[in-house]
Amino acid sequence: MKGVYIGTSAYAAAVLALCADALAPVLVVTRPPSARGRGRRFEPSPVAARARELGLELAEPQRLADEAQRIAALAPDAVVLCAYGELVREPLLSSVEILNVHPSLLPRWRGAAPIERTLMAGDERSGVSIMRLVAELDAGPVCAVESVAVEPGDDYASLSERLARAGDVALRRALGAPRVYGDQDDSAATYAEKIAAADRVLDPARGAAELERRVRALHPHIGARLASGLGVSAARVGGPALDRGATEARDGRLFLGTAEGTLELLAVKPPGGREMDAAAYLRGHAV
Question: Is 197 exposed, middle or buried (0-12, 13-18, 19+ CB in 10 A)?
Fold first, then answer.
């Protein structure tokens, strides 16, 4: 096997580490370094960092199309793409068969944020679909699927870790046998829109259960917050009855009233500060 791997995100880096022995990448392609963090320092993508750890040949082009000729010249046995963050266009799209490792049970949650949207929606199952890349977003035919249960306490970190292992299993199945594709049911498609700033805000006009899922869906990589700017990294449903939007401290515990029930804020992060439990936060802040 001689493969090419294309990806950018932390999830894509985890899949690369797991499948590298089976795919044997002769080239890894990722997005160029980008400005991150409060200092806006340029840092390599998670896939770039992992490829260097594995000693793999790496390319970080401004446009994926710039690597099309190089990929074709390598004549790889398989080209695998996972969470690259850029639409694949011609001539690469039709010059090679590209297997896309997508962390959802397609056609549910096509798009940029399938893991987060799975958790936000309260889905009981998720999984990974291996599909052939086509021009339309995540609409290609599927050749392998691996399903996993979504556990009640899952956050983005725990679910994405299991989905990376599921992606490795499904990809090995796709690489190890003649691929038989089945078309997706487009009428059943749902879309996982990219996480926007508004998605991070815990709006008390929504119910406590929905907000608790949102906290888990965005932890630890993005983070949810109150409208005041206070970050919330852990929460649970339950507490004293409160007016919608009211916050109240009782015995070292912090609560938010919502449209349906009360949300207890277990761990918070003040703007510019460090994460702490609610009791520690309340010792230094008035509510």
Answer: exposed
